């Protein structure tokens, strides 16, 4: 039977389907009563390879930021390797503006565990680690309890998945981070899991071949894994009926997406929408419009590293095409931060550069030094002490560091660059009004 | 903070008689944490978390004991521990107030609250009050942008904070702790 209404938030009351005040955590019994672990049961009746094919056919794209096709990633695992393989679940949601996974961890932890169990079965991964950020204390406690319940009820460990319905045995552990944004980068996360500093690795080898402890490893975001049970239960064509096709002949954006809206709106929060919803509709219909009747000025597309949308891009469709269509880096986590007409965009740029300066891991020189320089330049511009040429220097710096110019290992610097570049390019007037002219006044006497 | 450099030649390590990592803790962790990871080093982060929770911070003696426990060089333990912001190498206040300073919180006005806390507590960010009660931190995104501005007080997140609310909380803590001491 095709499913209608909310998907990921079907147990988490969310506007317009339910009242957020009625949210509560679904523990094992409630979860099973409301149809939980049914998808796992169904998955175990099928061949693992069939599930991988389903996820691949559904065109499910990673919800963690990069939008990489999930099924394709799964096929990168070595075919003839029978030894230990790992699943690393990325719950290190540290990108400013992003808080969508927290909703799942807070209220529906077993949905994630079911996704983990199915994915581990499909890809033959014996051990799963949930890497949760250190600041999520409350969520870590919830997950600890949920994992203990799942062990107790025979989902994990023991005789095999679902109390021995499959002889394949999966272990699932929670691993707490300790306050480092870079550990959300997939190879930084693996280093951190191994007990080292979270320094991203040079790729290749890719984690699917040589990952955690040198073994094949799949790394998926919380929300991505939560989509898997629904694809198994309701089918590929159902999933493809949600979301949208690409309008620029790119890969499609199927499915629903948790969108966490923050900033100057009346009702900030997480909403579940089909991919492709215009930002203006998200703000006006879901979030109750702009706060205090102000006008829209700008929005961070989805996590600060994606850059900002200009005032005339209010109708931008929130799908994976957004990067190519609206000159931002991409959809990111689809968690926009909205700014009203009174917002100082120079402040926004300064705040973002401070974040990246603080969070640069220090491994690659262009990022370590460049992010510090950019922050200093931004402070100078904000204080009105910079010159016009500093603005060009800022853009030159932004163009010289990052994985895309090929000077760093990971994409942290690219996030910094895109944020700064898009803000300066789209709101250049505000920056120019804050800087002094670069020329030196010269008095020439005539006669 | 990515880099902490120390002049190891002049560094002295304060030691106390009783170990930071007790035998019971070691036995418990060997049973519960170590089997989860392929290498002993894999358990380093959880071990650091638990020792910090037990001692309150991570004195160098604790790092040495952890190194011995996990059969690692002490430098490797310091290397990892110093990378992460949540690990403290000197005592912190009983109540750590971490105000989020990332974009949604700044756009929704975190600065007046931080300024107020600085003057009320008489400390700058990353400092501890002389009575050892409060440490003020400015943190990066706490993942609660819908309820900006927000702050983390020890493990509890406080949403939609304002000056009055923070004042009331601090006064209550001071009355409670002052009454005991």
Q: Strand portion of chain A, in percent?
A: 5-15%
Radius of gyration from the alpha-carbon trace of chain A, in angstroms = 23 Å
- CATH homologous superfamily classification of the largest domain in chain B: Glutaredoxin
Largest interface: pair, residues per side: A-B, 59 and 43 residues
Low-confidence stretches of chain B: none
The top level CATH class name of the largest domain in chain A: Alpha Beta
**Can you identify the CATH class of the largest domain in chain B?**
Alpha Beta
* Mean pLDDT reading of chain B: 93
SSE blueprint:
The complex is a heterodimer of chains A (447) and B (181).
Chain A: H1 28-33, H2 38-44, H3 48-57, H4 70-75, E1 86-91, H5 100-107, H6 109-123, E2 127-132, H7 137-152, H8 161-164, E3 171-176, H9 186-193, E4 217-221, H10 222-234, H11 236-240, E5 243-244, E6 253-254, E7 256-263, E8 269-274, E9 277-278, H12 279-286, E10 296-300, E11 308-309, E12 317-318, H13 322-326, E13 337-340, H14 345-359, H15 365-382, H16 388-400, H17 412-426, H18 428-434
Parallel strand pairs in A: 1-2, 1-4, 2-3, 7-13
Antiparallel strand pairs in A: 5-6, 7-8, 9-12, 10-11, 10-13
Helix pairs in contact in A: 2-6, 2-10, 3-6, 6-10, 14-15, 14-17, 15-16, 16-17, 17-18
Chain B: H1 23-32, H2 44-55, H3 60-69, H4 74-81, E1 95-100, H5 103-107, H6 111-121, E2 127-128, E3 134-139, E4 151-153, E5 156-158, H7 163-180
Parallel strand pairs in B: 1-3
Antiparallel strand pairs in B: 1-4, 2-3, 4-5
Helix pairs in contact in B: 3-4
